Amino acid sequence: MIRDHIKWIRLLCMTALLGVQGYSSFGQTEVHQQYVATPSPHAMSLAKFAITPVNLHNGTANVNVPICNLSGVNVSLNYQTSGIKVQDVAGPVGLGWTLNAGGAITRTVKGKPDDDATNGWCGTNKRGNDVATFINDQGNGNVQYLSNGDMDSEPDIFYFNVGGTSGKFVLTPEGVPMLLPHQDIKIAPAIGSQANQNYWIITTANGTQYYFGKTSNAIEESEISTSLPNSQPQTYVSSWYLSEIITPNKKRIAFTYHVGNDVTYKTYYESVKSTVFSNAGGNEVLNLEGHQTVETIIKTKSTKTIAQITTEDGSIAFTLNSSTRFDLIGARSIQQVVKKNKAGAVLKTFNFHYSYYINGPAGSPVSAITHLKLVSLQEEGLPPYKFSYDTQALPFRNSFQIDHWGYFNNNAYRYNGKYSAILPYTNPTSGVAHPGANRSVDPVRIQAGILKKITYPTGGHTAYEYEPNRFLDGNGQEILGGGLRIKKMTIHDGLHTSKDQVYHYTYIPEGSNQTSGVLNGWYPYTYHYYIGSISGNSQGLTGSTSTFIRHSNPLTFWSNGLNSIVGYSSVTVKQTGNGKKVYRYRTFSDSPDIKASKYHYYYNTVQPDYHTTLTSDKPPFTPPSTRFWQRGQLLEEKTYDESGNIRNRKTQAFNTRQARGSLKALTGTVVLSSNATNIFTMNYGVYELLSEEFVLTSTTNTDYTDNQVALTTTTNYTYNGANLHMLPNQVETIHPDGSRTMQKMLYPLDYSDRREQNPSTAVLALSEMRTYHIKAAPIETTVWAKSKASDPLVLQKGTINEYKVNAQGVVNLDKTFNFEHTTSVNESGYDASNTNNYSTYKPDIRYQETGSFSYDDNQHLVAFNKDKGVKNAIIWGEVNRDGVVWKTTRPVAEISNANFDQVGYASFESYTSGSFSGIGIAHTENVWLYYGTFHNQDFVTGQQSFQGTMTMNVNYNQVPIQSGEYYLTYWAKGGGNVTVNGASQSTNAHWQHYKTKLTLGTNGSITINTGATRIDEVRLYPVGAFMKTYTYKDGVGISSVNGPQNNVMYYEYDANNRLKLIKDQNRNIIKKYEYYYKTSCEVSDISTVANYSGINYRYKFTPEWSCNQENFDKNTVKIHWRFNDGTEFDNVLGNDNGSIVHNFPPIPGAHTVTVTKILSSGEEVDQFTKVINTNGLLTFNTTLTGNNGATFTLNHTWEASGRYEYLWEFGDGTVKRTTKNFISHSYTSSGNFKVKVTLRDWREGTVFNESVLTVVPIQ
Fold first, then answer.
1. What contacts 963, CB < 8 A, 6 or more positions away?
2. CA-to-CA distance for 230 and 241, rounded, in angstroms?
3. Cα within 13 Å of Cα(761), Cβ side
4. Cβ atoms 557, 405 nearer than 8 A
């Protein structure tokens, strides 16, 4: 048995009777599982991905389904492959799935919310400081508040997951965030004394700011309580959702949320109190005094679900299903995602289709037997992504058929007829056995509901095979446990199985035959003893009692399910026909947890402080101090070819660079006290929360030749910015020949802030970069080299980037410099830019400017000089939305050898078609005046051309243009004349390119009159310059590229905005893209018609099909219907669209209908299940009359015109038939009788045997 191997599960903890002056005994407070106040299911799934990385170290596969992207915000689905726990609750996109569409800060409350004003860890009274004082010097007057739980003794844990950055943190009593582990991010708190606002701000090292909970609609509250006596609900903010992103160039991305209903779910655990009475003769009698199932009730108030993401490029909208979910009352699932461009045009639409995991008898409460299941995700116009799962039914969420980690198993132990998860225990001294559950892993049931296959729109698929995790116990025995790990993955292209990519995963170290799995910590179930004297009891015993409590769940916070359970030190991935890779990782064995320090404390007026140390295996079970971040790092990767020869070996080394903070917390108090208010006795544990920098220190890369000669390159990383940043300042590379290169980097925080002494543009920018938390921007980079280790380093290259802060407060790259030298320079002959007296910015005088950069008010780069003076300009596009012209993030012209105040371009894309008179802003801030008509049916590039008069004033912000010679080029069509500044040019009837040379003065202007001719692609640039222009299909991609010689390339897209054609200037196809998909049909829903044919227990069901081909033989699509009353039917799609008529038993509750497609092989695929929730048709009443008589009535809601027969069975052997719905019967003896009535509708020949009642006659 597993319990014989895992000693940490069987911890037995004894608390001796404590003698206190004036009292002979104490009552003991029972220890219950420390419930953790958790966020909503969706928020918790985000937190899970924040803290449990997807990698081979924990045996998980990276399952990601991309949906769409907008301005760098990715919307996608992630799946957690470690398994489905019995008590898991599905989020808004189905069980096991997480929708990534922004992010959140979520927290688990430990004790009281940190921000509780009176007793919170960092509330107004800063109780965390009182806890620290008690830990360091007991007797600070807070003993009674700690002992009864009134004072918050632990900080809450906050999780964040946004923009590719994730992690967790706590708050100090002063409200300062402390990251676990430390990262190069800045957190402005929403609570505590350090909060300057009521929302969170996380700033990454590049200066991007993420705002959480900035509006009330982005904040989610939870209320938590338990079914224990005297449990008081506790309400707190559990999640702050992402409200907006502010990029370093001040671009804003906004997030809004649907505000939904209150949603409640429960978690469950068991507690058994057992007492052994021992008499004077040494005999023991077991008495189970109490068995209870404890419910933790979590109510999420006004649930929040992402509604829209808005950027300067467009928006992504999320629609919820109109009906609420069956499995989570009041909640709604995501139904649709729509991506739009800035003008509001729909670019892509994705629809989610769901079914339910269902288990339970007919008539069960629908929420108890269902889990939301994502069946498919389909982009409109394309075949869907289809998801297949293990078909084993999950049990009820309150079932205790669970293994140690909460996964479904074959436990058959029952208490009072119900499954129980309480572990057995045998007293080692007396041998008295206490019965209990089988909590071992079931290799089959643990896979219930897990994702097995993703079928892609192309017809290909990825199939996953799993197996239970394995780890070694203290005796070196392999144990199954801790969820699932990936065993095999097959990637099929949909065409040729011979080309399948098959990956096999094994978790055994090279040269070993045992698993490399290590359990990440110990998780004790609390066994709590109290021993005292008794004088008698109901069994007439005298002597002593031994009372202890067993729980079904661990009692520590770390049982919240967020951390990975097993980590592997070695994983081999073998790809069929392509060799293998062997990975080695750090594990719990390399960085074990530190057990909490435990103490016994006693206080009264006579002996104020009595303090002793407890051993670690005594209660309470306090969480350990952990460095979980030191586990899972890749230490080694070896690549072998198919013949088994090693071809490459990579290694990595890590180290703790420095500690950044620590907090001590107190938990798990066990209170033993009399009724006197001045006596307190408790056991408590102290653990430490640690923050540190854990960094990469070195890597090696070894390539092996065919002759197995090793060529190794070593890279060493050095960090100098103590308490400033975690970026390497030196990267040394040792090459196979022994030569070395050294790259040295300086970042903004490597300079002191000396703006008062040196208020130069560059120094002011460095100061602002500190303020804006822009840590990662390189300032100075030098490259050094030497032939061998003993040689001095010689400078090879030096570059400096200077930055500038503009009027909008944006820090942009301003200038670049290169180190210019003619003689060899070693380290002593070089002045780094931060090595002066004040460590402020002062570069070596040999740096020479090589580039400069200019920006518009939208932070777009509009001009840059590089290569010592070559000028370049960029013109940015516009888009029209509701008559308003907006700048876009797309460049429409690139010009070389010209400055931005010398160029102009118009493609007429920003304006609506038809007559128009007004001002158009040129992209260089010069002003075009348009008087004429825009045409959207005839053009060269983009979507419009122009006919009329346009005038350009060649001034830039009142600064005269450089005088000189310019080219004005355009395309024209119409056969009339185009006049440019009075000079007439005849045009062709077809589109043709024209070029005019102009001489412009400093205050000149350009007037173009097209007459009856249409023009497009108007360009202005100096003679000697070159212009390349672009047009776009808004939100999709480039629609044309017009080169310097006006040779146009066209790009066309299909209805799903995929690239379809590339054409040359004459519209000839030069490349064609075709997308092929296998013909497929799938059920997306089941439509239901109740009261079919006027019979209200009869339903008609019709599958709603989604097919990727319009013309096909529907009779070739076979389908199978299955109902939960055991009936099954076959049909084909061509027969009334595959519909079926079925009579449901008139039982109130949930009924299910399932339809599947049958392949020619007979395999059932594309299963879809719908739940029908009926109110029931029958009510069965009984009235007792006299001593032994009873009247029975069966009421039903069938139509009155039916022909009915009633069969009555009274449980005493008497059976009667009637055509009436009532009957009387007398019993001849007393007792309990099972009475059953059967109702038959003769029109249907259908019999229903559903109503059962127990009758107790009156004596």
1. 999, 1000, 1001, 1002, 1004
2. 33
3. 12
4. no
Q: Residue 400's closest CA among 520, 548, 295, 521?
A: 295
* Tokens linked to 344: 């509001």
Residue 909 φ/ψ, nearest 5 degrees: -90, -15
Q: How far apart are CA 293 and CA 557, in angstroms?
A: 19
- Alpha-carbon distances, residue 1175 vs 369, 467, 646, 1095, 1145 (angstroms): 17, 42, 68, 15, 11
Asked if the model's pLDDT at residue 502 lies above 70, the reply is yes
Residues 6 or more apart in contact with residue 512 via CB below 8 angstroms: none
Tallying the residues shown for the chain, one arrives at 1259
CA distance 388 to 391: 9
Instruction: Report cis status (omega within 30 of 0) of the bond before 41.
Output: no
Q: Residue 879 and residue 910: Cα distance in Å, rounded?
A: 5
Largest CA distance in the chain: 125
Structure-block tokens of residue 472: 């070694």
What are the C-alpha distances in Å from 568 to residues 512, 585, 633, 698? 14, 7, 11, 22
Percent above pLDDT 90 for the chain = 49
Beta bridge partners of 690: 662
Rg (CA), the chain: 37
DSSP conformation letters of 711-758 = EEEEEEEE---TTT----SEEEEE-TTS-EEEEEEE-GGGS---TTT-
Can you point out the beta strands (E) in 18-162? 27-28, 63-70, 73-79, 97-100, 103-108, 157-162
Place of tokens 């003698």: 19
- Please indicate, yes or no, whether the overall pTM of this predicted structure exceeds 0.85: no
Mean pLDDT of the chain: 82
- Residue 362 pLDDT grade (very low, low, confident, very high; cuts 50, 70, 90): low
Residue 174's alpha-carbon distances to 121, 662, 966, in angstroms, are: 9, 13, 65
**In the predicted structure, residue 566 carries a pLDDT above the cut 60:** yes
Handedness of CA 1006, 1011, 1017, 1023 (dihedral sign): negative
Backbone phi, psi, residue 256, to 5°:
-125, 165
Other CB atoms within 10 Å distance of the CB of residue 529:
17
State the Cα–Cα distance between residues 1219 and 1240, nearest whole angstrom: 10
Beta strand spans in 172-214 (E): 177-179, 186-188, 200-203, 209-212
Closest listed residue to residue 937, CA positions, set 1055, 1016, 1028, 821? 1016
First to last CA, the chain: 52
**Does residue 379 carry a pLDDT above 70?**
yes
In tens, the pLDDT along 262-301 reads 999 999 988 887 776 665 555 665 566 678 899 999 999 9
Q: Distance (Å, rounded) from C-alpha 557 to C-alpha 552?
A: 15
Token output for 263: 């949603």
Q: Would strands 1140-1143 and 1178-1185 be described as parallel, antiparallel, or unpaired? A: unpaired
Query: Which carries the bigger pLDDT value, residue 879 or residue 1203?
Result: 1203
Which whole-number Å values give the CA distances from 246 to 106, 202, 240, 311, 810, in the listed order? 21, 11, 17, 11, 11
The domains located in the chain, with CATH, are 2-353+364-690 (no CATH), 719-840 (no CATH), 861-1046 (2.60.120.1360), 1081-1174 (2.60.40.10), 1178-1255 (2.60.40.10)
**pLDDT tens readout for residues 176-227:** 999 999 999 999 999 999 999 999 999 999 999 999 999 999 999 999 999 9
Q: In 89-229, which ranges are continuous DSSP H helix?
A: 127-136, 143-147
Neighbouring residues of 356: CB distance < 8 A, sequence distance ≥ 6: 326, 327, 370, 371, 372, 373, 1152, 1169, 1170, 1171
- Rounded Cα gap, residues 1012 and 977, in angstroms: 8
**Tokens matching residue 1079:** 């013909």
Write phi, then psi, for 721 (nearest 5 degrees): -80, 70
